[in-house]
Design goal:
Layout lengths: L3 E6 L5 E2 L13 E5 L1 H7 L37 E3 L1 H6 L5 E5 L9 H14 L4 E5 L3 H13 L2 E7 L4 H9 L3 E5 L3 H13 L4 E2 L7 H16 L7 E5 L4 H16 L9 E7 L4 H7 L26 H11 L2 E5 L4 H12 L5 H15 L9 E5 L20 H7 L1
Parallel strand pairs: 5-13, 6-7, 6-9, 7-8, 10-11, 10-13, 11-12
Antiparallel strand pairs: 1-2, 1-3, 4-5
Helix pairs in contact: 3-4, 3-7, 4-5, 7-8, 8-10, 11-12
């Protein structure tokens, strides 16, 4: 059974039919809504230990229910790793990293694209397209291949070469665009308007949120249904942050949480591309396009986010905040985290390390608080744009002379 009751326009609450293909309302995203009272009658958290440790273990809280076969590559529960050395560096005894780099396509994009492609297949969609700053394109290509759906990927010319390779390898028709992700998006919209393909852009359909929501459901389960004080999250399109906040509200309605206290959500961007952080500073619910966007962390190089108000609403409701950290320090923060903990921290998550540093200096995060940082992708996917100068040697003695 599926427990979806309707789709709801995030901008004004308009109710839409979930049994047909829906995209946007007033050019803004949609929520998927469930009959949580009915879910309570058939599903309890005590049932979870007996289920496979994958994202579809929460199927009653997902659009698939037990009726729609998932398009899956085995999205296992990503580990929640204690980071004692990194925590000690910033004066924290309870710092965790939830490591999404271990998902099938090497990033958290596996979750959203698994769900979006699952629902596209359910609705009989045969051709999809996506603009991407990197990881989303490869993930869509992989899940589309799994589903037998034709895929088109459009990415900026300076997208990391690994992302270009994985999209093409999975059979997607992959194209480079002179410009940023929003320029790629214009081409995708043109193809959508011509009826050539279905647009799987961030928040342009309602189901990627539901896949990303499982990051929050997993975290609650891993923390024994007691949420942390603070969640620090790198923000491009913002689907993950929005999805987690939705997950926490649904869990609270189900009565599964041990406390009504919600985590303070922190949205992190780079000074090279900071539309949400700028809107937050200006106390605006909507973000203006960010000019001359540039950042080493390609996943957060999103100068316009259609879900801007949804991100900012979540930050305000949670008592959180948005901030931008210094672009020039991203590599240093990345090196610090990887060398202390060995976790494959991506540049986007490096921005979160910078945010943690700033928030501790401001004492916005207290020493005894529990903090979770999301590592949204694997460092290896960015290595080709980080030239490393290594010494060449021919003997042990040469190594000793350099040590």
């Amino acid at each position: 059974m599926r427990y979806v009751t309707h789709l709801e326009a995030a901008i004004d609450g308009t109710v839409l039919d979930h049994n047909i293909v829906q995209t946007l309302h007033e050019n803004r995203p949609l929520w998927v809504r469930y009959d949580l009272d009915a879910v309570k009658q058939v599903f309890h958290k005590s049932m979870l230990p007996a289920r496979p440790k994958d994202m579809f273990r929460y199927r009653e809280l997902l659009p698939v229910g037990d009726e729609i076969p998932p398009v899956s590559l085995g999205e296992g529960m990503s580990p929640l790793l204690p980071t004692e050395k990194l925590g000690a560096r910033y004066g924290l005894s309870k710092l965790w990293v939830k490591d999404e780099s271990q998902l099938p396509t090497g990033s958290f994009k596996s979750r959203g694209l698994s769900m979006a492609i699952t629902m596209a297949k359910h609705f009989g969609i045969r051709r999809v397209a996506i603009p991407t700053a990197g990881n989303a394109g490869g993930a869509m290509a992989a899940y589309a291949a799994r589903a037998g759906i034709e895929a088109y990927v459009l990415m900026p010319v300076d997208t990391p070469i690994v992302n270009q390779f994985e999209s093409e390898l999975a059979g997607a028709k992959t194209f480079l665009v002179n410009g940023l992700i929003n320029d790629c998006g214009k081409i995708v919209r043109a193809g959508r308007d011509a009826g050539f393909w279905f647009d799987l852009s961030t928040l342009k359909e309602p189901y990627r949120i539901e896949g990303k929501k499982t990051m929050g459901l997993e975290l609650a389960e891993q923390m024994q249904w007691k949420l942390p004080d603070v969640i620090i999250y790198p923000t491009g399109g913002g689907t993950g942050l929005i999805g987690m906040w939705k997950a926490f509200q649904e869990l609270r309605q189900l009565g599964w949480l041990e406390s009504d206290r919600m985590p303070r959500m922190v949205s992190v961007q780079s000074t090279g591309c900071a539309p949400i952080a700028t809107a937050w500073k200006q106390q605006s619910r909507f973000a203006k396009p960010f000019p001359n966007a540039h950042t080493f962390a390609s996943g957060i190089r999103v100068p316009e986010a259609v879900g801007d108000f949804m991100i900012i609403d979540a930050l305000r409701e949670s008592g959180g905040r948005a901030l931008a950290v210094e672009e020039s320090r991203l590599l240093a923060w990345q090196q610090t985290a990887v060398r202390l903990e060995g976790i494959s921290i991506c540049p986007e998550t490096a921005a979160c390390i910078g945010a943690l540093e700033q928030l501790r200096e401001e004492n916005w995060i207290q020493a005894d608080e529990e903090v979770v940082i999301y590592n949204t992708g694997a460092a290896q996917k960015y290595l080709p744009i980080q030239p490393v100068q290594l010494p060449t040697i021919d003997s042990y003695e040469a190594i000793r002379s350099l040590s």
